[in-house]
TrEMBL record:
<keyword id="KW-0408">Iron</keyword>
<feature type="domain" description="4Fe-4S ferredoxin-type">
    <location>
        <begin position="47"/>
        <end position="76"/>
    </location>
</feature>
<keyword id="KW-0479">Metal-binding</keyword>
<keyword id="KW-0004">4Fe-4S</keyword>
<keyword id="KW-0813">Transport</keyword>
<feature type="domain" description="4Fe-4S ferredoxin-type">
    <location>
        <begin position="17"/>
        <end position="46"/>
    </location>
</feature>
<protein>
    <submittedName>
        <fullName>Ion-translocating oxidoreductase complex subunit B</fullName>
    </submittedName>
</protein>
<keyword id="KW-0411">Iron-sulfur</keyword>
<dbReference type="GO" id="GO:0051539">
    <property type="term" value="F:4 iron, 4 sulfur cluster binding"/>
</dbReference>
<dbReference type="Pfam" id="PF14697">
    <property type="entry name" value="Fer4_21"/>
</dbReference>
<dbReference type="InterPro" id="IPR050572">
    <property type="entry name" value="Fe-S_Ferredoxin"/>
</dbReference>
<dbReference type="InterPro" id="IPR017896">
    <property type="entry name" value="4Fe4S_Fe-S-bd"/>
</dbReference>
<keyword id="KW-0677">Repeat</keyword>
<keyword id="KW-0249">Electron transport</keyword>
<dbReference type="GO" id="GO:0046872">
    <property type="term" value="F:metal ion binding"/>
</dbReference>
């Protein structure tokens, strides 16, 4: 059996979706940190960084909030997503994230990221139907 550096069984590599960060486009604003429920992204030396591939599930909730287009999803060989490790990550709540229409936060509404006129916004599920249906 193949072992990693701490003597535990090494994870087999898989081909899957994972977030890719373009450092040239990243301005370090940090807006992508709290939308990542897995706690995979942190700001290091002024740039967003996926701290460990096994924390990123590739779902891309961070993509919609990035104002510079620095985030994309790529398919490549890496370690499998580690759901248990992600569950243990501290959850970061950003109180500035609120529904742009009613002002509700994630404490009292379900929020979804959206883009409009080049802006990254959040909308709650109560205000979303009015946007869809007019
Ligand atoms: S939201 Fe985009 S620009 Fe801001 S820190 Fe994250 S990757 Fe960088």
């Amino acid at each position: 059996m193949e072992l990693n550096v701490v003597g535990k069984p090494a994870s087999k590599k898989v081909v899957r979706s994972i977030i890719k960060i373009d450092e040239k486009k990243c301005n370090g604003c940090g807006k992508c940190v709290s939308p990542c429920a897995e706690g995979a992204i942190q700001i290091v030396n002024g740039k967003a960084k996926v701290m460990s591939d096994d924390l990123c599930d590739g779902m891309g909730f961070c993509i919609g909030v990035c104002p510079t287009g620095a985030l994309t999803v790529e398919t490549r060989e890496t370690v499998p997503f580690n759901e248990e490790k992600a569950r243990m990550q501290p959850k970061i709540i950003d109180s500035s994230i609120v529904c742009y229409k009613c002002g509700k936060s994630e404490y009292n509404a379900y929020l979804l990221p959206m883009r409009h006129n080049g802006e990254s916004l959040w909308v709650c599920t109560r205000c979303l139907p009015a946007l869809i249906h007019g």
